[in-house]
Amino acid sequence: MNRDRSASESTLPDARRRAFTRSALWLGFGGWGLIPIASADTSPPAEPIAAALATMAQMSGNRPTASSRVRLTLPRLIENGAVVPVSVTAELPDVREIYVLADMNPAPIAAQFRIGPGVAPRISVRIKLADSGRVYGAVRTQNGLYWTSDVANVTVGGCS
């Protein structure tokens, strides 16, 4: 029994180590100029967000794609994480759904909206954020899932 317990305990530090190494490589390559500064806004999503995006993309049959045609707007400094205004706008045809995701929240999907035909692909909503981290705006169209992200700096968390 001790062997099973130690095997399951050892997988958690390995996952954290891989996530840390991946983040360090992105930061290092960006600092050396090997990754363009413009791609800093499209850094790879955190594991819960990547899993959520992959699940949503399966509905379209495509991989999630970072896109400059999806715009996410939120304040640079957020004093109260309980009430955070977020806007997502898309310049894509046939938008079916708009999502707001937060990698620091207990549940990654903060908001989901179905968009009917002929409706402008634009939403504004107030969400709760547990802590500082990345907020993602994702748009599902007939052709795939497109996303963008921005950093949220929260002084007082809003999730318990």
Give a brief rundown of this model.
With 160 residues, the chain is an alpha+beta fold. The chain contains 2 helices and 9 strands. The protein folds into 2 domains: 35 residues; 116 residues, SoxY domain (Immunoglobulin-like, Sandwich), CATH 2.60.40.
Radius of gyration, taken over Cα atoms and rounded to an integer in Å:
17 Å
At CATH level 2, the architecture of the largest domain is Sandwich
Q: How would you sum up the global shape?
A: globular
CATH superfamily of the largest domain: SoxY domain
Q: Tally the helices: what do you get?
A: 2
* Main pleated sheet: 6 strands, mixed
Helix content: 25-40%
Give the CATH class of the largest domain.
Answer: Mainly Beta
Total number of beta strands: 9
Q: Classify the beta-strand content into a percent band.
A: 35-45%
What is the element string, with H for helices and E for strands? HHEEEEEEEEE
Look at the helices and sheets and give the structural class. Answer: alpha+beta
Question: How far is the first residue's CA from the last residue's CA?
Answer: 35 Å
The CATH topology of the largest domain is given as: Immunoglobulin-like
Q: Low-confidence stretches at least 5 residues in length (pLDDT < 50)?
A: 35-42
